[in-house]
Amino acid sequence: MTTSKTWLAFGDIHEHTANLAKISDLANADHVLISGDLTNCGDRRKAEKILAAVRSFNPHVLAQIGNMDTSDVDAYLSEQGMNTHARGIDLGDGVKLMGVGYSLQTPFHTPSEVDEDTLREWLQKAYLECGEYEHLILMVHNPPLNTKTDRIASGISVGSSAIREFIESVQPEVCITGHIHEARGVDHIGKTKIINPGDFASGGYVRITLANGRLDARLEMIKTDEGEKRI
Fold this sequence. Notes:
With 231 residues, this protein is of the alpha/beta class. The strands form three sheets. A six-stranded mixed beta sheet has the order 4-5-8-9-11-10. It has a five-stranded mixed beta sheet with strand order 3-2-1-12-13, with helices on one face. Strands 6-7 form a two-stranded parallel ribbon. The chain has a single domain (4-221), classed as Metallo-dependent phosphatases (Purple Acid Phosphatase, chain A, domain 2, 4-Layer Sandwich). Mean pLDDT is 95; it is low at 225-231. The protein is built from four helices and 13 strands. It has helices at 44-55, 71-79, 116-130, 161-170, and strands at residues 4-10, 31-34, 61-63, 87-92, 95-100, 103-104, 113-114, 135-140, 174-176, 185-189, 192-196, 204-211, 214-221.
């Protein structure tokens, strides 16, 4: 029997959940993956409200915090058994998910910022937890350095060298990222497809599929009057 699975991923929700209702098959996804920034410096009460909205469409949620979420949100995700940060998770059928939330330091002094060495340690911890796999999905809030997914409006790349080094070495098939809203796009580091769907309020999300032994991912946009846009 041929295995077919679908995961839908997005992040940078920032407390805007209206677009959930516009993803027609959200309820049918095997999991909903959230890459970080559920809130705007919010606590667990804010996160609980946002996650309740997501779970009303699909109860199978895996998530991690971004730099705009507090440690209280991280604790809440762990208590709910859905935290992907610094973890390796078995999604079944040979697919493993590894997650790293937070971000590098920003000029805005947001709640959850760390340095490159810390990101490097978390990446290794999550990778070791994955063990053997046939397919690997990497979900990081902070994008890798020097890609289309980490450029701010001025064109400067603000991604992580630790994350880039990890991707260059391990070559996961898919890397879901976010953090830099204006850097929505798709890029590659070697065989790894990197996708930043931008902020959720603008309508971007990622569809990851496993079919006939092949894992793939694509950037999609919420349906508009002009129809669904794909990159």
